[in-house]
Amino acid sequence: MLIMRSSGESAPGGDATSYEDSIETMSRYNEELVAAGVLVAMEGLSDDPAESVVVDYAQTPPVATDGPYGEAKELFGGYWILDVGSQAEAVEWARRAPLSWPGVKVEIRRIATIDEFPQDNPWIQRERAWREATGQL
Q1: Calpha distance 117→125 (Å, rounded)
Q2: pLDDT over 90 at 82, yes or no
């Protein structure tokens, strides 16, 4: 999973590139991912704090506050889920992402599969059945 992050001070489109050019450049990158057969899913996330909430579990009951910036002053701008053969391949795709504004980063995380959890656990068995029923397995 490639997670697009930026600081609160920087934001997509924060450079001199027009919004239309940014969309075109990102769309070309996405087409490359599709053509390579590695794109599983992707979404952009709203950067409007009025549309986001952070639930903090440090207290009981958990406290909900306006988000998404939180303490870290970082914003998750979107993500791609890729099916690649190695971390090196994911890094190469991340390096090719057309993200040019200051402060932006891409975090690469491996998604754990259900096969990595104890298969004799009844909750894991229920999740497997749910994933099979929804076409995710």
Answers
A1: 10
A2: yes
Tell me phi and psi for residue 18, to 5 degrees. -70, 160
* DSSP characters over 49-84: GGG-EEEETTSSSPEEEE-S-TTTTEEEEEEEEE--
- Cα–Cα distance measured from residue 101 to residue 10, given in angstroms and rounded to the nearest whole number: 7
Output the six-digit token pair for 46.
């709203």
Answer yes or no: are the C-beta atoms of 97 and 76 closer than 8 Å.
no
Instruction: Report whether 68 contacts 49 (CB < 8 A).
Output: yes
**Residue 35 corresponds to which tokens in the numbers above?**
């053509």
Cβ proximity of 79 and 1 under 8 Å: yes
- The pLDDT tens digits for 29-66 are 999 999 999 999 988 887 777 787 777 888 899 888 87
